[in-house]
Amino acid sequence: MSAVRTFTALADPARCLVVERLAEGPRSAGELAALAGLSKSAMSRHLRVLLDAGLVADGRAPDDARVRMFRIRPEGFDATTDWWRTVQAHWERSLASYAEHLEHRRTDER
Fold it and tell me: DSSP code of 39?
């Protein structure tokens, strides 16, 4: 998956809330809808986006096969983590270069 796909899926506050709640543990669509203050059909659309982006997975509840449970897929965030590491490495190199430049200026002024 791409970082853009992840960010696009998380661009909606309701979907961010779903991810935050699922980080606490698996939940049913009904529980998530109630927590977000959304209708079940609206939650279903949000969950579809998150499923398609690979950020969440679903399965049946062990005690009731009629209930779909949703959980976080940590590996679904790998592309975003990789993207962030690339950005962070760029800034670390830039800041290190700037610090080196300042040190050379101080040395030259002495």
Answer: -
Hey, what are 67's tokens? 């209930």
Q: How many domains, the chain?
A: 1
Cβ(16)–Cβ(7) under 8 Å? no
Do the beta carbons of residue 27 and residue 104 sit within 8 Å? no
Is the pLDDT at 40 greater than 80? The verdict is yes
Tokens coding 9: 């899926």
- For helices 40-52 and 29-36, the axis angle rounded to 10 degrees is 110
Reported as a single tens digit per residue, the pLDDT across 71-110 is 999 998 888 888 878 777 767 777 767 777 777 777 777 6
Structure tokens at 29: 């669509």
pTM of the shown model: 0.74
d(CA 21, CA 43): 13
